[in-house]
Specification:
By secondary structure, the chain is an all-alpha fold. It contains 6 helices and no strands.
Length: 166
């Protein structure tokens, strides 16, 4: 069952990232759905599935979108692994957790991507990158983190029946 969910998540992410979100960009910035999906998977299924999903989606993004092969797969792999480390320590009903992790994950992703591009001699202005891309993407990802997290919670959380009152 998890393999089917995994394949569907990768396909839906690919469709959203290529066919829908380019048309609803804000100031030329698209949300990083791949990062939000990896974070949600890692919260619910742990570091192995988070890292594996991150690597898989990252390779697909590298092949299609990136000028350099391996950057997205590396960043998303470690994002999934690091978030997966705290899987057992977070309260999955708390909606503040995906919001906080989406903000931290967006900062991690963008700064790591900038560092890779800097060392690969790609000309990116740090000030315009921070001002024009990072802030808009943090807001965009924060807004979209809640519905994505709710979808994952519906998929992976088994409802518990409680009898009596508390």
């Amino acid at each position: 069952m998890i393999v089917l969910i995994f394949v569907l998540v990768v396909l839906i992410n690919f469709i959203l990232q290529t066919a829908i979100f380019p048309y609803i960009s804000v100031f030329g910035v698209e949300p990083n759905i791949a990062l939000l999906v990896v974070i949600s998977m890692a919260i619910f299924k742990g570091r192995f599935y988070g890292a594996f999903l991150g690597f898989t989606i990252g390779v697909i993004q590298d092949i299609i979108f990136s000028p350099v092969l391996g950057v997205n797969s590396f960043i998303l792999f470690f994002a999934g692994y690091l978030v997966g480390l705290i899987e057992n320590k977070v309260i999955k009903d708390n909606l503040f957790i995906p919001l906080l992790l989406s903000i931290l994950g967006t900062i991690y992703y963008n700064f790591t991507y900038y560092i890779f591009m800097f060392f690969l001699s790609k000309n990116i202005s740090f000030l315009s990158f921070t001002k024009d891309v990072l802030l808009v993407e943090i807001i965009y990802n924060s807004i979209l983190s809640m519905p994505i997290y709710k979808i994952f919670s519906k998929i992976f959380v088994v409802p518990q029946i409680r009898f009596g009152s508390k």
